[in-house]
Amino acid sequence: MNPQTVVYKQASGCFIEADVYLPEGDARDRPVILWIHGGSLMSGGRRKFVSQRADQLAAFLAASYVVVALDYRLAPEVKVGAIFEDLRDCYLWIRESGPELWGADAGRIALVGGSAGGYLALMGGCFLEPRPRSLVSFYGYGDLIGDWAVKPFYYRKTPSMRESEAIRFASGPVRTSNEGIEAERRKYVRHCREAGTWAALVTGLDPEKQQSAYQAFCPLQNLSVSFPPTLLLHGGIDDNVPYQQSVMVAVELDRLGVGNTLITIPAGVHGFDSKMREDPAVRDAWQKTMRFLNNQFREDAG
Fold it and tell me: Are the C-beta atoms of 163 and 129 separated by less than 8 Å?
């Protein structure tokens, strides 16, 4: 499954890339999965995300979907508004170039992501025009101003990184992946969560003094009746992104009359979907995910 690697934009001195995976055959008008990696908006990259979920990629390709896995600029060197711009530009690039380059159907694009990728998928449903056909959010979040995001969040009894070490990762060249410094970058993200500085670093805003400004970055504050049909999946014992984050999104979508389903994995932890082969509950959730996408991608879907 070797992808075509393309530069979909240039910004901040970076060539920002995406990998395009094509199903077999030479069909036209093929649906597209825009696959968004996680990493707390600060780390990760398209290649590692795909390698960790090779079973999912294979299922997408077997269903004759084109898969586009994108990189985006990472915080804190840029703020989340710039990440939204990258998502928008990749989405528009697919719509404009995809039909000619790979037989993509510009009207049938689904956003799929996990954790920060799930958050970005939900935000994409708020601001992308025209709206994506559907969204799938694995353990994403609808809120950047809750206690889980702005208060110290301890993973363990002792900090993973001293402040003097962390400061080295607070500025520098803009990155679109953590390749080469993965271990250090993951420790830095953990430090920011433990210190309660993560939300401020990714937004550039003080959560106490500028709380109202956070509304622009919270899916929960921007959902509308035109929001795409949405599938939410979340583990009941997620100790990274609280399960309630997906519950709140589902409740608000219900209130708006937007079609949505929340699948709960009772014993699911953060990243549970990487265990598809080992866990029957995860396999069942994945089968439901594929049914959801297949239904949304039908030619006569709304």
Answer: no
User: At which residue do the structure tokens 């399960």 appear?
Assistant: 243
Q: How far apart are the first and last CA of the chain?
A: 31
Q: How far apart are CA 27 and CA 35, in angstroms?
A: 21
pTM (predicted TM-score): 0.95
Burial class (CB in 10 A: 0-12, 13-18, 19+), 56: buried
pLDDT at site 199:
96
CATH number for the domain running over 4-143+215-297: 3.40.50.1820
Structural element, H or E, at residue 31: strand 30-36
Extents of the domains making up the chain? 4-143+215-297
Q: Which segments in the chain show pLDDT lower than 50?
A: 302
Task: Say if CB 272 and CB 279 are below 8 A apart.
Answer: yes
Instruction: Quote the Cα angle for 53-234-122, to 5°.
Output: 85
